Each structure stands twice: as structure tokens, then as C-alpha cells.
Amino acid sequence: MATRTVSTHQVVTRDKWTVARKDLLAKEKELTRARDALSEQRRALPWVKVDKQYIFDTISGKRTLAELFDGRSQLIIYSFMWRRETAKAASACFQFRSNSIHCSTDARNPATTSAAVSSGDPLSSK
């Protein structure tokens, strides 16, 4: 059995820790402000008109991208990884989708539809 070694870590007084923590907090706040500014720039990017007619095979039959919105103003697409060699979903994708399946029916999100898409065939085990 391998022996674990405990790394040495600096131990200081509460006052020194408080000073170090406040310094780190200032850096964390600076990072948050920078991330917020970058996110605002991303939201301000111009849009691109979707000219291509995308068709999706769904449980309800073939639907266009516009139809996936289901009359709502927002669409969340999750790219579901399908393992063709095993005819099974990637475990993390399955777990994520299982935990988020109710997002579009949640009363707090009445303008949002969610959909999982896959390049595989999750409706059959061909």
C-alpha cells in the first residue's frame, strides 16, 4: 500500500490569515468584474441570420429549428453525445439531461424551451 505524505502548509495567526484573505478577495472581485465585462461584450456581439433550413428528427416527427422553439422566445440546445458503438448515451450527458429535463416546464422559465440533440440515434438501438 502506498504511503501518503502530507505536504507542509504555512500556518499563520488569524490576523495574518485575514490580511491574506482580504488580498485574495480583492483579486477575486477584480476577476469577477473582468468576467462580467467580457460577458457583456459577448452579449453585445452582432447576430447572424440563420438562412439554412435545419430539420430535426424528433419524437413528434420532423421539425424545423424554428419549430423547436415551440412558440417561445428562447431555446436551450444541449448536444447529447451518443456512443454509436454501444448504442448508449455518454454517462455524463445522460446524467445532465436527466437532471435538467424539467427546465423548460419550470414556471420560472415560461419563455424557454429546452431540447437535447444528438448526431446518433437515441430513439433506437440500431
General description of the model:
The protein has 126 residues and is α+β, with helices and mostly antiparallel strands. The chain is built from three helices and six strands, in the order αββαβββαβ. It has a two-stranded antiparallel sheet.
Cα separation of the termini: 45 Å
Low-confidence parts, pLDDT < 50 over ≥5 residues?
122-126
- What is the 3D shape? flat
User: Count the helices. How many?
Assistant: 3
Q: Name the helicity range.
A: 25-40%
Strand segment count: 6
Beta-strand proportion: 15-25%
Radius of gyration: 23 Å
SSE ordering? HEEHEEEHE
Strand order of the largest sheet: 1-2
Instruction: Label the structural class.
Output: alpha+beta
**What number of domains?**
2
The major pleated sheet works out as: 2 strands, antiparallel
Give a short summary of the structure.
By secondary structure, the protein is of the alpha+beta class. The protein is built from 3 helices and 6 strands; from the N terminus they run H-E-E-H-E-E-E-H-E. The protein has helices at 14-43, 65-68, 91-100, and strands at residues 55-58, 61-64, 74-79, 82-83, 88-89, 112-117.
Features:
single chain; 126 residues; alpha+beta
Summarize the helices and strands and which ones pair or pack.
Layout: H1 14-43, E1 55-58, E2 61-64, H2 65-68, E3 74-79, E4 82-83, E5 88-89, H3 91-100, E6 112-117
Parallel strand pairs: 3-6
Antiparallel strand pairs: 1-2, 4-5
